[in-house]
Amino acid sequence: LERRVAVSRGSEFVVVANRLPVDRTVGADGVPRWRRSPGGLVSAIAPVMRRRKGTWIGWTGAPDERLEPFGEDGMALHPITQTAREVELYYEGFSNATLWPLYHDVVAPPIYDRSMWDAYVQVNRRFAEAAAEVASEEGLVWVQDYQLQLVPRMLRELRPDLRIGFFLHIPFPPLELFWQLPWRRQILEGLLGADLVGFQLPGAAANFVRLCRRLLETRHVKQDVYWDDRIVRARAFPISVDVGELNDLVGRPDVQERAQEIRTDLGDATVLLGVDRLDYTKGITQRLQAFGELFEDGRLKPGQAVFVQIATPSRERVEQYQLLREEIEQQVGRINGEYGEIGFPVVHYLHSSYDRAELTALYLAADVMVVTPLRDGMNLVAKEYVACRKDLRGALVLSEFTGAAAELKRGAFQVNPYDIDGLKGTLLAALDAEPAEQARRMRTMRRRVIEHDVDRWAQDFLSELERPGVRPVREPVP
Ligand code: GDG
Q1: How many CB atoms lie under 10 A from the CB of residue 163?
Q2: Is the CB of residue 239 below 6 angstroms from any atom belonging to ligand 1?
Q3: Which of 166, 148, 155, 165 minimizes the C-alpha distance to 130?
């Protein structure tokens, strides 16, 4: 594991993210190895990283681990240590029990705790110091996501020569919610250390600019914020999926066979599919409720339709996530207990993580993909489903509260997941859609996803960051 590579110092391109893009695994021979991690962020940036031969700064996921920089999967990796207490306070605490719910419409109550905040500052400083050490003169640093919002400012103080970009993968809340945060000023000033602050949607960028004006009394022209003798640009860059990788998977005979096998195992039933991290923002209970009620109403019969819900384990030490898991497990038990018959459970619930090939086989086997978040920055699952359906079959049910809805609304069956009756009607409409309608909708969505894949996203962000005229406005040398 401690294989060393050429020192990562002097990198022209540095990515800073909470997690390194690899997970530790043990091979069949018992030897520990690294493997590329699942998850939105990693699927998005790994290909770009490899092309640019950059350095990725992040945490391995193991508390108290100290590792030297190493190379894996064509990338130079620079590990950051987090103590067990920091993981609890910075990661599980401030990142995932404060910022995550606050930025997702407060769908769970955020915890405001001063020791969590202190740990957030401390760990952000460690990341900023590492980036300051690794980046070359006038290099480019791209900071990722809500766990590291203080890094841009800290890094600029250490290295004013750098060009700094920040991308927020989750929603940026309206001023009225952000205002709750006891450290609202520090977070905002942290972000303003960047030259370019990227969001999933134009509305999020607008929320940010409005907040700057109200909280810091900044001037701005459109989405250019004047701050500290510099111009900070707020822009939208909707993230997407690796269409090439998914195409390759869809073309693999073993993946197609596996899709057939899944269908055979499920009998003649129409297959509805959900794939999510087990997270309270994803609207899993709402979709299961709607599905269960369709049986209660007699609008669906056991054996006619089946719901496969993959819920990937996530943030298992955070209380809200433990509560949600119990709730979903009870709900699945109740629905199957009431409406299932021998040989025909109505919900298959899998609390487990799968490899990309298995996920692709599931996408190919699903007649209706059900994506019902209460709030989601983008939602890559929706785009992955579309990217996989070259056959123009299948229907996508998509919540209005996802970033993806802005791009896919013409082809998707849109829903408000809070409206259970509406959700029931839409599930049935998607189940009943004729092949010609499925194809028409799928074609529209595929056009968008294929043209705007993850490469385009990264290119758009980086070329905006590299655009001349965005360097810090310096005092003239006397
Ligand atoms: C955040 C934002 C934004 C899921 N289970 C497995 C697995 N996955 C993969 C999916 C997809 C990714 O994880 C999940 O991405 P999402 O976008 O759906 O959601 P978040 O994890 O909440 O991501 C989100 C995203 O960042 C990117 O900016 O879109 O709004 O919340 O790629 O396929 N992958 C594997 N095994 C699984 O079991 N290998």
Answers
A1: 19
A2: yes
A3: 155
Q: Which of 145, 169, 195, 367 is an active site residue?
A: 169
Angle between helices 243-251 and 253-265 (to 10 degrees): 70
Q: What is the pLDDT of residue 304?
A: 94
d(CA 464, CA 453): 17
The pLDDT score that the predictor gives to residue 38 is 62
Interface predicted TM-score (ipTM) of this complex, two decimals: 0.99
pLDDT of 475: 43
Close Cβ partners of 273 (under 8 Å, ≥ 6 residues apart): 307, 308, 309, 310, 362, 363, 365, 366, 368, 369, 370
- To test the ligand 1 pocket, which listed residue (145, 277, 454, 461) has its Cβ within 8 A of the most ligand atoms? 277
The secondary element (H helix, E strand) that includes residue 321 is helix 319-339
pTM above 0.80, yes or no: yes
List pLDDT tens digits, range 51-102. Answer: 777 899 999 999 999 999 999 877 899 999 999 999 999 999 999 999 999 9
How far apart (Å, rounded) are the C-alpha atoms in residues 185 and 456? 33
- The residues pairing with 273 across neighbouring beta strands, listed in sequence order, are 308, 369
Tell me how many degrees the CA angle 314-423-416 measures, rounded to the nearest 5: 75
**269-327 pLDDT, tens per residue?**
999 999 999 999 999 999 999 999 999 999 999 999 999 999 999 999 999 999 999 99
Interval 331-356: pLDDT, tens: 999 999 999 999 889 999 999 999 99
Residue position matching structure tokens 């990198």: 11
Please tell me the predicted confidence (pLDDT) of residue 2: 38
DSSP reduced 3-state for 415 = strand
Task: Determine the angle formed by the axes of helices 40-52 and 454-466, rounding to 10 degrees.
Answer: 60
Cross-strand pairs, 55 = 14, 76
Instruction: Give the rounded distance of the alpha carbon of 334 from its chain centre.
Output: 30
Give catalytic status of residue 220 as yes or no: no
State the distance from the centre of ligand 1 to the C-alpha of 245, rounded, in angstroms: 15
Contact present, 427 and 370 (Cβ < 8 Å): yes
228 is catalytic: no
> Is residue 408 predicted with pLDDT exceeding 50?
yes
Alpha helix locations (H) across 61-113?
84-86, 100-103
Question: What percentage of the chain reaches a pLDDT higher than 70?
Answer: 94
